Amino acid sequence: MTGRTQRTYKRKDNKKIITDEDIYHMLMLHKYQRASIRRIAQKFSLDDSEVRTIIGRRTGGSCCG
Q: What are the contacts of 61-65 at 24+ separation with CB within 8 A?
């Protein structure tokens, strides 16, 4: 174990948390269907910044290449 805690993301309506399956769908929408961050955020009832964080962490996004 690395000691990291997994962050849980809650939807704006507080009805359901974001699951691993939801995150997978976000990544596929962004990568293959070229969906915008705003469109994904609306679909999953999240803030734009949270979607940007999720996609950045899961794809290994970095500032340098």
A: none
10 DSSP β-pair partners: 17
Q: Please report whether residue 10 resides in a domain.
A: no
Indicate the SS3 state at residue 39: helix
Residue 45 is part of which domain span?
20-59
Q: Give pLDDT tens digits for 8-65.
A: 676 766 667 888 898 899 999 999 999 999 999 999 989 999 899 888 887 765 555 4
pTM, full prediction: 0.70
Q: Distance between CA atoms of 14 and 57, rounded to whole angstroms?
A: 23
Number of domains in the chain: 1
